[in-house]
Design a protein that fits this description.
With 138 residues, this protein is mainly alpha-helical. The chain is built from four helices and no strands. The longest helix is centred in the C-terminal third of the chain and has 51 residues.
């Protein structure tokens, strides 16, 4: 910006102002703030508290996987990290294996229940036959 006669006059007036004039920066606004610090209690955690919390958390977890499962999934992860498998392939193989194994366990449990149920049904049928035969003989 080019200096004009007016701008030089203003500069000179600003330099010659007496220190008696109290001009403040910020258009005369004063902001007063108050910082609040509410009391926050710090909990005291004992070793027993930590132990009981850890026990309750681990009691809700499913049982440990078998050694065979650990070796399989660990090997799958190691092959993925080493770059022998891409992670989507490893995820698909691991997921499919888990799905097939969990269905197999479900079928075994269902077959056991059905087998036990058949035994109960046979017992009911034989009781009914015994009662019917007892009625006929009397």
């Amino acid at each position: 910006m080019a200096r004009t006669a007016e701008s030089t006059r203003e500069d000179k007036q600003a330099e010659t102002r007496s220190p008696d004039t109290h001009e403040h920066e910020g258009a005369g606004l004063h902001l007063h703030t108050r910082t609040l610090h509410p009391p926050v209690p710090i909990p005291y955690i004992t070793r027993g508290d930590m132990r009981s919390t850890a026990r309750s958390a681990t009691s809700r977890m499913p049982g440990m996987p078998s050694g065979k499962d650990l070796v399989f999934y660990g090997g799958l992860g190691a092959m993925t990290v080493a770059g022998a498998l891409e992670w989507p392939v490893a995820l698909a193989v691991g997921g499919a294996t888990w799905l097939v194994r969990s269905r197999g366990k479900g079928r075994e449990a269902h077959a056991r229940e059905a087998h036990e149920g058949d035994g109960d049904a046979r017992a009911v049928k034989s009781d009914t036959r015994d009662r019917d035969s007892a009625k006929k003989t009397t």
